[in-house]
Amino acid sequence: MKTDSTILYLVVPCYNEEEVLNKSAQVMKNKMLRLQEAGRIAKASRILFVNDGSRDRTWRIIHELTQQDRLFAGLSFSRNYGHQSAILAGMMTAREKADAVVTIDADLQQDIEALDSFLDCYDRGCDIVYGVRNDRNTDGFFKKATAGMFYGFMHFLGSNTITNHADYRLMSKKALDALSQFHESNLFLRGLIPTLGFQSDIVYFDVKEREAGQSKYTLRKMITLAMDGITSMSVRPLQMITVLGFLVCLVSAGIFVSCIWDWAHGMVVAGWTTTVGTICLTGGVTLLSQGIIGEYIGKIYMESKGRPRYLVDCLIWHGEEETDDTH
């Protein structure tokens, strides 16, 4: 596998990134041109921006970039479908033309200079290369703490999720073809891609400060992503409910035996605290269990509908425009 003939596509999901997009596009272009001049990638390599239903000027900027330089291409959703869908759409579009695809965020907090190391691993025969951040020093205390708990919990559930890997990765065409055979709408790529089983490696990089604008990953979106990851990659929460129910039954049986013993020895007391505590505990466990089961039933409901994971409104290559695509 020789990198001088490798057609590399950068897939860049974008949501309301007008403040940073022009600068990011120039940085990406300069890096791609340097890689071409060094013979690392082919001249046919491209940068594919995926507009995830932005409400600002993001798509207009992408359109202008594609008209100015053939290095750029653009794909736009009919509405906002989410970060994971944007990444998947970009990869599935690029795999038709590329030998390898790298996904990277538009704010370029992920170090683009790590592309050299990605290509080194690809040249050694790796079909998947994971970008893993060296540390989380740029995150606040809350995000750092919750991220650690999330990855720890995912590992406890048996998921192969790679700690501190956030969708900065390289995938070969072979790996992308394999990924295209997965059709679930409950997407969690960080957990799904490690299950493909191809030869892989890890590249560590430093996270930079955001150049402009604000992060679009709100607390609500992070919670949603975490729930999708937990419910799409493991059924262990359902198994935990079974164990918890068994333990509650044992405790309840013990309390029942204790009550019979007290009655038989004439030591019956009002037991208000014990009664209320038991009812509250049982009720809380029941509601929590129903909530977890409900999450899984909701995912089954959405999967059974067979709806497309996203709708493409427009796809622009240099001087060409395509519309109406679904997946």
Tell me what you see in this structure.
The structure is a single chain. This protein has 327 residues and is of the alpha/beta class. Strands 7-5-6-4-1-2-3-8-9 form a nine-stranded mixed beta sheet, with helices on both faces. The chain contains ten helices and nine strands. Helices cover 47% and strands 17% of the residues. The mean pLDDT is 80. The chain has helices at residues 21-37, 58-68, 83-94, 115-123, 141-156, 173-179, 189-192, 219-233, 236-264, 272-305, and strands spanning 8-14, 46-51, 72-77, 100-103, 128-133, 165-172, 200-205, 311-317, 320-326. The two termini are 31 Å apart.
How would you characterize the largest beta sheet? 9 strands, mixed
H/E topology pattern:
EHEHEHEHEHEHHEHHHEE
The CATH topology of the largest domain turns out to be Spore Coat Polysaccharide Biosynthesis Protein SpsA, Chain A
Q: How far is the first residue's CA from the last residue's CA?
A: 31 Å
Overall average residue pLDDT: 80
Total beta-strand segments: 9
Overall number of domains: 2
